[in-house]
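Reading a protein record of the kind used here takes only a little practice. The integers have meaning only within a learned vocabulary of local backbone shapes. With that in mind, consider the following protein and its fold in token form:
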Amino acid sequence: MTMRRPVIGVSACVKAVQNERLAFHAAPAPYIEAAAQGSGGLPLLIPALGDACDEILASIDGLLLSGSKSNVGPGLYGQSPADAPPYDAARDSTTLPLARAALAAGVPLLAICRGIQELNVALGGSLHARVHAVAGFDDHRSDPSRDLDGQFGPAHPVSLTPGGLLAKLAGATSAEVNSLHGQGIDRLAPGLIVEARAPDGLVEAVRVEGADAFALAVQWHPEWDFRWNPLSAAMFRAFGAAASARAMRRAHS
């Protein structure tokens, strides 16, 4: 019997689309392509409709929390709502409980950019609303005057925690990554282990300690270069392998 591809849920945002009067639930194409081609999965878009964790988790073998231009609502981690627009409350109400439920159910999780921020807040951590305004930190935002290849190109190195998951995937203790974020982790949530830091000390990647399955989150964008970047490719392969293992267990349960 041919084994089916693992179903990978990809979080969507509520977005305004130019020349359209209705809002759209959408995710950028690179996440969907990376889930399909980098992880060997069948992507399933998860609309931002609120808490429906049990039904969603019963349908997927892996969860990919995508990046977004919107920020996690500051009220969710004790800061003023005026701190860092734009927001997407519908996405927050979907992804934060879904991340917690996925970990509890042993569903493999890969969280990217906004996703690492969601994971940290979901587990009780906090964020810097504007990293570039915090003394001692660099400006991690991209240059909007550059084309997409320039914006998503290598921006700075990260130090990978020796013996950590990313260091094992990279076969090294450092890597070059892109950088397109205005927010970042402030107080690390309980149960998260630092996997990488930027030169200014900002947390760039974490894993969930004691997770029952693959559970990794990064601040940069490996979906952009998974076809040619060895570390990005290894991350999506490892995530896909964990999702495939769950799919096999579900098929035989």
Remarks:
- The mean pLDDT is 94.
- The two ends are 16 Å apart (CA to CA).
